[in-house]
Amino acid sequence: MSRTGIYVGVSGNIGTGKTILTKVLSERLGWEAFFEPVLANPYLDDFYADMTRYSFHLQIYFLSQRFQAMQRCLLSGRSFLQDRTLYEDGEVFAPTLRDLGMLTGRDYENYRALYETLLSTVRAPDRILHLTAPIEILLERIRRRDRAYERHVDAEYLRMLERRYDEWCGRIGRTVPIRRLDTSRLDLEGRDRSLGDLVSELASWAEVRR
Q1: What are the φ/ψ torsions at residue 80 (nearest 5 degrees)?
Q2: Dihedral angle over CA of 71, 30, 147, 13, nearest 10
Q3: Rounded-to-integer distance, Cα 63 and Cα 86, Å
């Protein structure tokens, strides 16, 4: 039996269903779960009031929280799932904020140096579940859950993120196995066989890894 647990990252655009899938898989597999620390973020309200001023602060908070969670989980030796990975901060969201002019070039370079330093100290995921769904479905899910901090999200922003995700998946997929899941075709509540098949697949794969 391996002393190190399995590490699976759950990645994907806003509204793809990362949190609910992480929760269900964690319960069914008996693995630990780390969820994105959005609601506890002390910079969130400030960010949406003045995005240019607080983009750097917001990204540093997310980076530090996800890094700390990865360290705790990896040191515990237990298998775990992570709702949004450290990579997505540095490869998707920070570059998009820079492209939008909300993160200055100086701040981005500073952020990137810290991101790469932290990344060099942690183990890469053993597997990534990358969730996708058509933009119109993402917008409808975002509208239905009606989170105040997501009301600025529009189709063009989601498309920008999607392009960054595609580029990142192409890069990391050279070294980390990626399982792509279209959540518009997957019952995230587990009322059909699709989710059960995914749980069985992950359990069998994890057993072989051990």
Answers
A1: -155, 160
A2: 70
A3: 6
Contacts of 97 (CB under 8 A, 6+ apart): 51, 55, 59, 103, 108
| Mean pLDDT rounded to a whole number for the chain | 89
Picking from 178, 169, 75, the residue whose alpha carbon sits closest to that of residue 123 is: 75
| Helix pair 135-145, 155-172: axis angle to 10 deg | 120
- Active-site annotation, residues: 83
CA distance 126 to 171: 15
**166-179 residue pLDDT tens:** 999 999 999 999 99
3-state secondary structure of 42: coil
Smallest Cα–Cα separation from 43: which of 34, 33, 30, 56?
A: 56
For β-strands 178-182 and 32-34, DSSP reports them as unpaired
Token pair 């964690």: residue = 26
Are the C-beta atoms of 114 and 57 separated by less than 8 Å? no
Give residue-wise pLDDT tens across range 40-95. Answer: 778 887 887 888 899 999 999 989 988 988 888 888 888 999 999 999 999 999 99
Q: Which residues contact 204 (CB under 8 A, 6 or more apart)?
A: none
Residue 185, H or E segment: none
Greatest CA separation for the chain: 51
